[in-house]
Amino acid sequence: MQYGISNLSIVPLRLEPDDTSELVSQVLYGDYFKVLEKRKSWSKIRLAFDKYEGWIDNKQYLEISEDDYSKFKNETPKLSTDLVEFVQDQDSHLLTIPLGSSVNGLSLFNHAFDGNISEGIHPKQHLLKTAYLYLNAPYLWGGKTPFGIDCSGFTQMVYKLNGYKLLRDASQQATQGEALSFIEESEPGDLAFFDNSEGKIIHVGIIMEDNYIIHAHGKVRIDRLDHSGIYNIERKLHTHKLRVIKKVI
User: Fold this and answer.
1) In angstroms, how far is CA 139 from the centroid of its own chain?
2) pLDDT value at 176 more than 90
3) Which domains does the chain have, with CATH numbers?
4) Residues whose CB is less than 8 angstroms from the CB of residue 160 and which lie 6 or more positions away in sequence, other chains included
5) C-alpha 149, offset from chain centre
6) Contact by Cβ (8 Å): 119, 125
7) CA angle at residue 35 from 30 to 40, to 5 degrees?
8) What are the helix (H) ranges across 99-150?
9) Helix (H/G/I), strand (E/B), else coil: 86
10) Contact 169, 13 (CB under 8 A)
11) Is 91 buried (19+), middle (13-18) or exposed (0-12) by CB count in 10 A?
């Protein structure tokens, strides 16, 4: 088995080994993984954090040893908490890194970092404070940063920055936690899931106080939440149909 780590800020994770293939997620600075299959130009990887799989360009990661991989797995993640930060290499060149990047691999890269970090588990009430950092971030299928993010990437990163693990896709996240019967049983930080006409879960957001929800739809935005789903005041219609509310924490 081979192992790798992202030494670049934001690396695309694709469905197939091709630059034109669908973006299924992103590998942020410091994310580490197993290499399941290596070809001439591409590698199929499985991320350590959420076991998500996809293809990454061989030029966009650094190979590491099994010992390094195990070391990272046993460490508490140290994540950057500013919208944009930078690390400095041994030649004093700067590399920007986005919110939620891991700085556990600094010594491996010979990089220096003096920004703010988050580590360990934070109280549930911190989730919304973190969520506001992504407010107005444009929607991007497969995105995980303030420069472009999808609905489940948003919830995953908010939870991750507070020390909790969510799976990558909305349908996967819906398998986690305890289902609640009514909106009234929920509290800020719980997750609301929404389905399509076929009953497939396709959307997720974070519940706020007073029947509001923050979610990625066009951009990370705040809308009303009722028993039917998400109500967009600007468009005066329901945009998503409520399926289930889950308490993960």
Assistant:
1) 13
2) yes
3) 2-118 (2.30.30.40), 126-247 (3.90.1720.10)
4) 49, 77, 79, 100, 166
5) 8
6) no
7) 110
8) 106-109, 126-132
9) strand
10) no
11) exposed
Residue with tokens 């020390």: 163
Both tokens assigned to 6: 């992202």
Q: Quick one: the chain helix, strand, coil %, rounded to 5?
A: 15, 40, 40
More confident residue, 236 or 76: 76
Sequence letter at residue 160: K
Q: How many CB atoms within 10 Å of residue 102? A: 23
Short-list 209, 112, 194, 206, CA closest to 157:
206
Tell me the pLDDT tens digit for each residue of 186-230: 999 999 999 998 989 999 999 999 999 999 999 999 999 999 999
Contact 240, 190 (CB under 8 A): no
Could you identify the residue written with the tokens 């630059």? 19
Which of 153, 180, 151, 188 lies closest to 167 in space, CA to CA? 153
